[in-house]
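Researcher: I'm comparing several assemblies side by side, and this is the next one on my list. It has 339 residues spread over two chains. Same procedure as the others: predict the full complex and return the structure.
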Amino acid sequence: MSTDSTAERAELIARYRAGYGVLLAALEGLTPDELDWQASPGAWSVRDVVHHLEDAEMTGAVRLRRLLTEDAPLLPAFDEDVYRRRLAYASRPIEPALDAIRAAHWTTAELLDRLAADDWTRTGTHSEEGPYPILRWLTFHATHTHEHAAQIHQLRLARAGAAPPPTEPSSTRAFATR
Amino acid sequence: MTPTERQALIAKYKAGYDDVVRSLGGIGPDERDWRPAPGEWSAREVVHHLADSETISGLRLRRLLIEDNPLISGYDEAEYARHFRYQERPWEPALRAFEAARTTTAQLLDSMTEADWRRTGTHSESGPYSTEAWLRIYADHGHVHANQIRNNRAAWAARRR
């Protein structure tokens, strides 16, 4: 393993670990109206984003464990819009979701810190995206929470009228988690 | 299963985390890591097992609710304990993961309709796997491991006498 790739991995792990704090900062001082505000009918609210992170980050935690213990596991895709619709995101309190995101990151970061050189060669297959090596997992999850924290900032700004509302009906598209 | 039976099992599921916390009350540092016999888990390993198992089971319920007849893959809990070094890792993050998986999943259980309770999938090892079968297993799971911790602690106390 080159020094560069070791440093790159360490940087990605640090970013993964920082995601929860960045998410909390994005939610600071949030009002009940902001929590459920939608840029347009059907668009994602801040509450939806937090529940999306709950399910996506728990799913990510389990995917990493499967990649590390099974030989070439098949990882089923995650349809974020179906999760949102079927699992009542709009009506559930977000505190348990935040606890779940924090715990998924906390326990999973412990595993990332302990990865051996051999572990980085492990891979699986994503049912829609194909080959899914550990580095791909890490590259995605290092930034996923940060991207949704930025989305929350944008939603709050849009609601305050400081920026035009997102034009896409489903404003999470750019950060799609499959 | 009648709605009343289901409600009783959901209540039992919700009480599982507190039962584990009670079983750990006042546990000493050496006691946490003590294995009653070779190959058996310490209290620390049980807590890490609960974190992984309950996160996995929470996601299984979500897939049962969302996908049509999902294939639920089994996992090797003994391999997880070894590979993920349950015996070496701090247990506070694991307790938080166990609690959060339960709290979020309990929200889903409370909102399930009659149609949701008829949904089913297939487990890679045990075959047909319905939402009701899921509830029967996980209503007990926390309590089973709380009792395992209590048994460990009783054996630990007897050993020192």
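Model: For your comparison table: Residues 17 and 110 of chain A are 10 Å apart (CA to CA).
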